[in-house]
C-alpha cells in the first residue's frame, strides 16, 4: 500500500531534531527519533530529512549548511511511502506572486525510474488545487528539466546557479483543467 504523508508547518524543534538524524540513513532515521515514516510527525520529518540528505548532500554534493533553510517551518512537506519503505519527498509553499513553489523534490536512488517522481509532482499539484492556487513553479536542475517538461512544466528563465548546480525556473498553469 502506498501512503502519502503530509506535514504542514512543522515546529522548529521538530525540524531541528529531524536534521540531527538525517545522516543515519533513510531506513533508520525515523527509528532514531522513535517514530515511523508514516507517523505524520517527527518520524516522518526525520525520514524526509534523511532522503534529502542522501540525495542532495551525499549524491549531489550540496553543502549541508544550505540544504536546510528558513522555509522548513512554513512549508508543507510531503513524504511518499510504499509498503512501509520511504520513497521520496517534496516541499511546497505559497509564493508572494500567487503560485505554489515546489522544492526539495527527491526520490531515493533505488526507487528512481518507477514513476514515483510523477506521483510526487501530482501530490504537489493536488496541494496547489486544495489551496485554490492555479500555478506551480519550481527551480529545476538543468539535467532533469526534461522530467518536469514531461509533466507539463515550461522553462521561463535563463539558466542560473543554485547550490553550485545549474538550474532553470519552470512553471505549470493549473487553471482550466
Computed over alpha carbons, the radius of gyration is 15 Å
Helix content: 25-40%
Low-confidence parts lasting 5 or more residues at pLDDT below 50?
Answer: none
Q: For the record, what is the CATH homologous superfamily label?
A: Gcn5-related N-acetyltransferase (GNAT)
Number of domains: 1
**How many E-type strands?**
8
What amount of the residues lies in strands? 25-35%
Tally of helical runs: 6
Shape: globular
How far from one another are the termini? 28 Å
**What would CATH call the class?**
Alpha Beta
Let me know the average pLDDT.
Answer: 95
Order of helices and strands: EHHHHEEEHEHEEE
Largest sheet: 8 strands, mixed
CATH architecture: 3-Layer(aba) Sandwich
Classification by helices and strands: alpha+beta
CATH topology: Aminopeptidase
InterPro entries: Acyl_CoA_acyltransferase, Bact_Acetyltransf, GNAT_dom
Keywords: Acyltransferase, Transferase
GO molecular function, one term: acyltransferase activity
Pfam families: Acetyltransf_10
Describe this protein with a few key phrases.
177 residues; Bact_Acetyltransf; 33% helix; Acyl_CoA_acyltransferase; transferase; Aminopeptidase; 30% strand; 6 helices; acyltransferase activity; GNAT family N-acetyltransferase; alpha+beta
Describe the structure.
- The structure is a single chain.
- The chain has a single domain, classed as 3-Layer(aba) Sandwich (Aminopeptidase).
- It is built from 6 helices and 8 strands; from the N terminus they run βααααβββαβαβββ.
- Helix 1 crosses helix 3 and helix 2 packs antiparallel against helix 3.
- It is globular, with a radius of gyration of 15 Å.
- The chain has 177 residues and is an alpha+beta fold.
- Strand 3 (85-94) and strand 4 form a beta hairpin.
- Strands 1, 2, 3, 4, 5, 6, 7 and 8 form an 8-stranded mixed sheet that branches.
- It has helices at residues 12-19, 26-32, 42-59, 64-67, 116-130, 145-150, and strands spanning 2-8, 76-82, 85-94, 100-107, 135-141, 154-155, 160-162, 165-173.
Amino acid at each position: 500500500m502506498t501512503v502519502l504523508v503530509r506535514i504542514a508547518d512543522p515546529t522548529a524543534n521538530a525540524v531541528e531534531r529531524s536534521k540531527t538524524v538525517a545522516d543515519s540513513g533513510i531506513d533508520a532515521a525515523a527509528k532514531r527519533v522513535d517514530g515511523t515514516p508514516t507517523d505524520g510527525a517527527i518520524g516522518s520529518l526525520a525520514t524526509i530529512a534523511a532522503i534529502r540528505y542522501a540525495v542532495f548532500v551525499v549524491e549531489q554534493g550540496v553543502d549541508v549548511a544550505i540544504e536546510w533553510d528558513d522555509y522548513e517551518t512554513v512549508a508543507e512537506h510531503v513524504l511518499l511511502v510504499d509498503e512501509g519503505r520511504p520513497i521520496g519527498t517534496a516541499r511546497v509553499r505559497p509564493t508572494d506572486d500567487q503560485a505554489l513553489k515546489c522544492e526539495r523534490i527527491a526520490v531515493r536512488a533505488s526507487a528512481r525510474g518507477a514513476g514515483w517522481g510523477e506521483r510526487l509532482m501530482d501530490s504537489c499539484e493536488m496541494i496547489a488545487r486544495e489551496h485554490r492556487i492555479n500555478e506551480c513553479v519550481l527551480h529545476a536542475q538543468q539535467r532533469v528539466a526534461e522530467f518536469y517538461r514531461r509533466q507539463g512544466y515550461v522553462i521561463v528563465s535563463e539558466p542560473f546557479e543554485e547550490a553550485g548546480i545549474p538550474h532553470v525556473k519552470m512553471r505549470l498553469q493549473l487553471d482550466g483543467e
